User: Fold this.
Amino acid sequence: MQQHQKPLFISHGSPMMAVENSNTSCFLQRLGQKIPIPTVVIVFSAHLDVIDDIVITAGERPITIHDLYGFPDELYQIRYPAPGAPVLAKKLPTHVAGIKVYLSPTQDWDHDVWIPLRLMYPQTNIPIVQLSINTLVSAA
Assistant:
């Protein structure tokens, strides 16, 4: 029987964590070495907040986007070329809590995805599915 990792809530913290050592960046590096290596990672991104549909990445090779401003140039040079998981994305529900789900072949990895995953899994070989949130609806 396949085991599933329990869900984790991981904040990316300061984007500078991607280029500076901190307690949090070291923690994420150690965490990636301690927990079983996943076959896929599903990320709910607080930086992909949409008001109508839920957006799910469905591309084969999303690129790293730098949706942050005012940081040192070295931060904008980082790439995290992890593969997408479009087959898994297509298996996810078409509606969640009455909200329509939209599979996007063009949505790329925002910094809520690549900052922590780059620290945990620097090899970029684990497929990712990124889901948006909608802060206009209740948690229920």
Notes: The first strand starts at residue 41 and ends at 49.
